[in-house]
């Protein structure tokens, strides 16, 4: 029995209903390929949390670890290769305790502070505004700054805007010049607070919407035409928060955020390990992550009431799987391993973002290095790329490409009482090429998928890449860094505008066609 993919996204994912079937087919609708996939959907997030900044990105000028002006060379090169479009900083919860003036000027004069949210670690502020914005320039990423609303002031935010972006003869810009940077930085996004419903101030939506109006007014006056103002959005499925903000302050922002983390168990108090998990936690993790479709659909419906023209973008600026920390590590540092399951969570989530590309204009996975669903893990002078890193790299072809709507009919993958689609996928076109990305979530069998290319007039397959593993809980280790890594893929056949692909179990496949 076949089933329509759009029906799955709206009906199956929200109600948990399933169908069985054996035919696996995909149809690409080139005639409706009008919506651009915003490159910022592939954004990243770096917070002063655990070893993300220190040890991960920044080791300082005097470190024995090879570095370029304090930035780890190996990490820096890996970040450049990832083609990161936008990077969010300094938090996260840290943002609403961060006072930016502590992080500029001579490093030896910067005050040391207590990182109260993340393990009580002492923060020496050696990585601050200059270090972050220079990093963005070095890796070619746009800067997304989170301003302090929880414990800051409007004046503090305004002075930060002037320090970063003003070319005038004013005090803050002159201070920047004294600190070694003459030219203003190009800051593209300014977040007005972070998680204001929780660690960012424990506010009601009514209270925060008034603050958003106030802060946003001055952000506009001092930074007009320089950046988008991002309102702090909801915690997961809190649709009332979105409703209140859109109603009370929709005109005071250019985008609205939302946060959603995948908890395989559904229990924040017992999230389960990142390694060694069984098949039940494998499928539950994927099933929980697929709820992203429901979340975006329903928040978009609320936004559509007040913004039918979709002027205000929806930014999923924190997402990814959150597990228990690795044994023996500081609980407040959120260091977790990264498995083949997490790679499939990334690929299937991107498929969802693409389907909602009319409203979703950015996403920032948490986090860049050594924290949560990280792209990179470090240990001393060693570095490994995670399975999630490889998915981001494989999917980079979709950045700023035209989304090709897909209809998928596929069999189920079932374990116990949990059922999800065995196949997920997406497609886009850019610069005369067609990019097809597919995932097989079934850990037990390869699946043959037939792709109807419709009016695409595809003549050849230029390139094929596959990411797979021998187990859903397979990981890359420091002594085995390539256990899960992409390889060339050739199990496809193109004939009469039909593409037959034999997908290995537990795989993400990327094909570039012309």
What is this structure, in a nutshell?
The protein has helices at 5-15, 73-81, 129-139, 154-165, 171-178, 205-223, 239-249, 279-289, 292-306, 340-355, 387-395, and strands at residues 25-28, 43-45, 67-68, 71-72, 86-89, 113-115, 121-123, 142-147, 187-192, 228-235, 255-262, 313-321, 360-366, 376-379, 382-385, 402-403, 406-409, 412-415, 418-421, 423-430, 433-440, 447-452, 461-468, 487-488, 492-495, 498-503, 507-513. By secondary structure, the protein is of the alpha/beta class.
Q: What features would you describe in this structure?
A:
There is one protein chain. The chain is an alpha/beta fold. The chain is built from eleven helices and 27 strands. The chain has an eight-stranded parallel beta barrel with strand order 2-5-8-9-10-11-12-13, surrounded by seven helices. Helix 4 runs parallel beside helix 6, helix 6 crosses helix 7 and helix 10 packs parallel to helix 11 (about 385-395). Mean pLDDT is about 95; it is low at about 1-20.
